[in-house]
Amino acid sequence: MNQLHFIWSMPRIYKRMVSVVIDSMFIALAFWGAYWARLGSVGGLESSTWVVYFATTVVTLIAFTKLGLYRAILRYLTFHALFVISIGTLVSLLSLTFFAFYFEIYIPRTVPIIYGAFLCLLCGGSRLVVRVLFSKAFEGNGDSVVIYGAGSSGRLLSMALRGSDVYRVRAFIDSDKTLKGTVIQGVRVFGVADLEAVIRSKNVRKVLLALPRASRMERKAIIDGLVHLSVEVLTVPRMIDIVSGKAKIDELRDVSIEDLLGRDPVQPQQALIEANVRGKVVMVTGAGGSIGSELCRQIIRQGPTSLILFELSEFAMYRVDKDLSAINTAESLGVKVVPLLGSVQKENRVFAVMQSFGVQTVYHAAAYKHVPLVEHNVVEGIRNNVFGTYFTAKAAINAGVESFVLISTDKAVRPTNVMGASKRVAELGLQALASKSPGTRFCMVRFGNVLGSSGSVIPLFKKQIAEGGPVTVTHPDIIRYFMTIPEAAQLVIQAGALGKGGDVFVLDMGEPVKISDLAKDLIQLSGLEVQSEDNPAGDIALKFTGLRPGEKLYEELLIGDSVEVTAHERIMTANESFMAYEKYVDLIDQLDHACHNFDHVKIRQLLLDSPTGFEPTSGIGDLVWQARSERQSMMDDNKGGGESGVLGSDSKEHKLQLVTSGGIKP
């Protein structure tokens, strides 16, 4: 086949000229062949028969040209091209009949019919042969792949990949037993049970999922049957993206984490989505964050009169404002978007914003959420998460805000770290304020990890796999709840509409996921093998690094067992203990004093004494406090440097050990 490569590489104009010459030869062969088939010879014909032949040839070539036959690319030949050949042949047949009648030449009535059949077979068949030759010429290139799904999407994908030098389709796999054993576009269809044998026998490297209409639960069941195979699994885009033009059928992607979770989204209740948003002035704090920005994207589509973006980071504000402006313009929403820089720790700034714009609904998403970072920056974590929430809530009361929704976390339930404890104190603050301020409805929405947020483990795993590993997991038994950012934001908006005052809403996160299993699935779906004691020749190893300071093996969503259903199937409400307003104010005052003096021992004691359920698993991890303690320890040792012997050495060793082990435990 390599000898034909010079033909494939010819300029397009030369290929068209060759096609015209060959079609002229086919017309002659069909014309004289029809005479021979009918009369047994071509001798003794009138000289004017040549006139009919030449006239028919000219008309036929013009018809083929006008119908676009010579613009068709043979390697992508479809039934449309064969239809064009059929129409051109019909025109040629009729022109032959017309010219014979016009020049009064006797031609048997069956000759035009035989001529048409010959011409159609020659022109159409030759093009099919060229297409097959082209496919054969390049079939040795590219990875051998199997298409899972022999429906319309699978057939379209196979056709799109036919001219590709990247993939070579070796088989279809489909669960429809009526298709098993059939051949589609020259490719055989096998049953699901035959998949492993097909992969081995045909040296398949990739499985392409062509099931854009399948639910996530169905896709998860299929993926679970593929993870043990040493093949990479790719998928076609969602059907809604293909139909809308956002993606093409052959734009293959990695299997999404949503498919691995197998969690189908629930259609939102429009009445709940609109209740606190449509026709209202809505403010989102932390608008540039993962959850905050998605809240903004969903809120702007529900018709608020104004959307106030409140964000500390200039860069994050720039990104979300630009994104929302594009949505506003593209969808002609006409929503007034107001980007405002500021800190939720500045109560006067927050109050001025709410009062000036007449804010009616607040979604408070501003928070520090990364457990290790807050462990290392305790004071700032408490200032932002506790005081930021308290000051924003007080500003909302004073500005006459109707509804205030706090975005909380599952780490607030029996927290083992400062971040979780600070979010639980923030929840207690809203519950305390709710009893004193009936004019503003406070509620909080608690949920677990969201996929794709900043610091999410999934992008880290993918990066480590791309770099050849190892993939790092903190503990072999650690589990987490996961939810997509759009679903989380959607449920937060709906939960806010259900609030009556002081409610703690808990989102149904589905089944928890074992992180080590998730890492293994990602490795295997990349066509690689997990390296282990049983498989030392594997491609990528799992490395367990140990739990980080304050990290739990598993997360919870409920403090007690008292939970009730709501009008939404994935939103529950929990009845939990809370603090009286006076006691909470006293706690806040003491925390403020301790934070001001960087008294970390006092801060920790206050968190332990408050009804947060705080059970720290490590010592004080604040980096400034540790550095100060170490410096003080060295200064004390220098002062006592005159005291020699074992006592001084032991004292220094003890103090350094105190710092490096995580600090003082109360």
Overall geometric form? elongated
Low-confidence stretches: 642-666
Number of helices: 24
CATH superfamily of the largest domain: NAD(P)-binding Rossmann-like Domain
- By helix and strand content, what is the structural category? alpha/beta
- Order of neighbouring strands in the sheet with most strands: 10-9-8-11-12-13-18-23-22
Number of domains: 4
Radius of gyration: 36 Å
What percent of the residues sit in helical stretches (DSSP H or I)? 40-55%
For the termini, the CA-CA separation is: 79 Å
* The level-1 CATH class of the largest domain: Alpha Beta
How confident is the prediction overall: mean pLDDT? 81
The CATH architecture classification of the largest domain is 3-Layer(aba) Sandwich
Most strands sheet: 9 strands, mixed
- What CATH calls the topology of the largest domain is Rossmann fold
Number of strands: 23
Tell me the β content: 5-15%
List keywords for this structure.
single chain, 666 residues, alpha/beta, Rossmann fold, 4 domains, seven-stranded mixed β-sheet, 24 helices, 23 strands, disordered C terminus
